[in-house]
């Protein structure tokens, strides 16, 4: 892509700045040749960035390319600004079994830190303030938080507006009674685990809204009459619907931000990449969720899932009320950042 973009710039007035995804490192090269400053846009959490940036600390402490099976419970408590984190909750690229992407990630972070003129983080500053303060002191380039960078403009529900069938279904459900389930677009669970999830959801009798590109008929038959399955939906609008009381998520960073903005508690089911670290932030740091798959390589059985869903969606329990209260506090933090109308 570098050469075609270079040719396009040949026919344009010189831009004031190039804004580019951090994973397009050639943009920095173009900016350097043309004397145009580059703002590198990091699309994961600041916490994930800082872990990669401080990878030498992992190396010196024996946690770089670690065996997550044997070392998973060991605690990493030496990365500045980051609360203690188990090895199993580090980005999966540091797992000796999943290290294919690690060289690229370290290259991207190095170039961002040393060659870009600005760094933009898609986060809410108040949610990762300690990490941001450390990086502001350590990085040789200025950094800005520009979160939450989600489509929050159209989350109101208007009675005079035609709605998709799935929103009409939500309209008919009691307040906070529906668990929204999404395992993301790219990585998925095994067939064996999916069978256990379907059976557990059905056994729980919890109302569920399930979005899945595949296995729609299988899921529809499996969850019964107390749920709905769709291949796609406006996720943020669904999460903000009054009837939705929880979010079963793979914990991709965009989904994490949308759930935080909606003020709903999470059931986390991370699979890979940055998702384990995001799940740790949700469950341990922000305390607005529970983790389903506590052992990433262990099958979670249907009875455990059913019991967990029933407890999670119990709106009268003290633990559930406290978790939902904290989730609303996180939502207010997001709204304050947006209402400010400026980069934090």
Task: Walk me through this protein's architecture.
This is Putative UDP-glycosyltransferase 87A2-like. Keywords: Transferase. GO terms for molecular function: UDP-glycosyltransferase activity. With 344 residues, this protein is an alpha/beta fold. It has 2 domains: 144 residues, Glycogen Phosphorylase B (Rossmann fold, 3-Layer(aba) Sandwich), CATH 3.40.50.2000; 183 residues, Rossmann fold (3-Layer(aba) Sandwich), CATH 3.40.50. It is built from 15 helices and 12 strands. The protein has a 6-stranded parallel sheet, sandwiched between helices. A 4-stranded parallel sheet has the order 1-2-5-6. Helix 9 packs across helix 14. 41% of the residues are buried. The mean pLDDT is 89.
């Amino acid at each position: 892509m570098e050469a075609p973009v270079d040719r396009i710039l040949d026919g344009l007035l010189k831009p004031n700045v190039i804004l580019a995804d951090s994973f397009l490192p050639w943009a920095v090269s173009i900016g350097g040749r043309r004397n145009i400053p580059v703002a590198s846009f990091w699309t994961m959490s600041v916490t994930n960035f800082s872990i990669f940036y401080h990878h030498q600390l992992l190396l010196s402490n024996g946690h770089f390319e670690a065996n997550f099976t044997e070392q998973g419970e060991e605690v990493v408590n030496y990365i500045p600004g980051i609360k203690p984190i188990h090895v199993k909750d580090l980005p999966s690229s540091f797992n000796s079994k999943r290290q294919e992407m690690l060289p690229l990630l370290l290259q991207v972070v190095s170039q961002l830190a040393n060659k870009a003129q600005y760094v933009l983080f898609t986060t809410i500053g108040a949610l990762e303030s300690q990490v941001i303060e450390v990086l502001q002191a350590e990085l040789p380039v200025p950094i800005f938080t520009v979160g939450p960078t989600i489509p929050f403009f159209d989350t109101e529900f208007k009675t005079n507006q035609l709605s998709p069938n799935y929103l009409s279904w939500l309209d008919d459900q009691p307040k906070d009674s529906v668990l929204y389930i999404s395992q993301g677009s790219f990585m998925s669970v095994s067939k064996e685990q999916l069978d256990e999830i379907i059976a557990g959801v059905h056994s729980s009798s919890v109302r569920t809204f399930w979005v899945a590109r595949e296995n729609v008929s299988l899921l529809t038959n499996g969850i019964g009459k107390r749920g709905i399955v769709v291949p796609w939906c406006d996720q943020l609008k669904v999460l903000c619907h009054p009837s939705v009381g929880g979010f079963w998520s793979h914990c991709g960073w965009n989904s994490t931000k949308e759930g935080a903005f909606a003020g709903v508690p999470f059931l986390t089911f991370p699979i890979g990449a940055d998702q384990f670290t995001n799940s740790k932030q949700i469950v341990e740091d922000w305390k607005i969720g529970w983790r389903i798959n506590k052992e990433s390589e262990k099958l979670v059985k249907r009875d455990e899932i059913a019991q967990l869903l029933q407890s999670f969606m119990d709106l009268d329990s003290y633990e559930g009320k406290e978790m939902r209260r904290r989730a609303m506090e996180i939502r207010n933090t997001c709204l304050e950042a947006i209402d400010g109308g400026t980069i934090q």
